Amino acid sequence: MKRVALLADIHGNAAALRAVLDDLAGVDVDGHVLLGDYFLFGPRPLEVAEALRALGGPTIKGNTDDYIVRQPPDHAFAPMLRWYREQLGDEHLAWTAARPFRHEIEPGLQLVHANPSDLESLLITEQDEWETYPSTSEEEAARLIGDHTAALTVYGHIHYASRGELAGQQLASVGSIGMPFDGDHRAAWAIAHHDGSDWTLEHRRVEYDYEAVAQEIRDQGTQLAEGRALRILQARPVPLRTH
């Protein structure tokens, strides 16, 4: 594949996903890869699960997908995780659990959720405008990249687009479909294109009714509903406080 659609961090936002899939239908790509974090935080996890499974294609696991599957009882989001497990049901939970950690496309495109070593640790080559997280050090990047090098490693997880180099590895992140963290409410996705020499990324944005989605979260009244709604309304990483 030389033109690959990259879809990341849907977070249960079915309206944003529908808008992106409509946009995707109008462009020329050879395939698509889903980069994790499909359900947690948004109001319609079941609708998202059904849409993604109908879409098919390579699908890797994100950190919040792992939370839902494992449901650690001492997790700060435990009440919310129970709600999402109930919404998804056994079949969709089994599908989520079976997702692999990474996907690779020749020549030299490595796709992961957060970094090449785990589902959580951050790779920050460019900070967001609020400087939410510090830039990753060369030493930490070398630890996270390890032996898993590629011409380009692309990930989601941080919910905004960036590109840079750390520890000799070219890195890029793609924005979030369901919960962008760059001040732009529009759903974000990207196309990776190989020109015969290098991989480049085309970042795309799509309008959808984000205010209606935020209100639906509030109306459901599940754990941390207000903070989750504010993340969508403000398009920034509002802290989710459990106390």
Proportion of β residues? 15-25%
Mean pLDDT: 97
- If helices are DSSP runs of H or I spanning 4 or more residues, what is the number of helices? 7
Count every beta strand, where a strand is a DSSP E run of 2 or more residues. Answer: 9
Largest sheet: 5 strands, mixed
Low-confidence stretches: none
Strand order of the largest sheet: 3-4-5-7-6
**Strand and helix order:** EHEHHHEEHEEEEEHH
Separation of the first and last Cα atoms: 47 Å
* Main structural class: alpha/beta
Radius of gyration: 17 Å
Estimate percent helicity. Answer: 25-40%
Task: Please state the overall shape, judged from the principal axes of the Cα atoms.
Answer: globular
Structure report:
The chain is of the alpha/beta class and 243 residues long. Helix content is 33%, strand content 19%. The protein is built from seven helices and nine strands. It has helices at residues 14-25, 45-55, 63-70, 78-97, 138-145, 210-220, 225-234, and strands spanning 3-7, 31-34, 102-105, 109-112, 152-155, 162-166, 169-173, 187-194, 199-206. A five-stranded mixed beta sheet has the order 3-4-5-7-6. Helix 2 packs parallel to helix 4, helix 3 packs across helix 4 (78-97) and helix 6 (210-220) packs antiparallel against helix 7 (225-234). The termini are far apart. The model has no long low-confidence stretch (mean pLDDT 97).
Key features of this structure:
243 residues, 4-stranded mixed beta sheet, 5-stranded mixed beta sheet, alpha/beta
Short description:
This protein is of the alpha/beta class and 243 residues long. The chain is built from 7 helices and 9 strands.
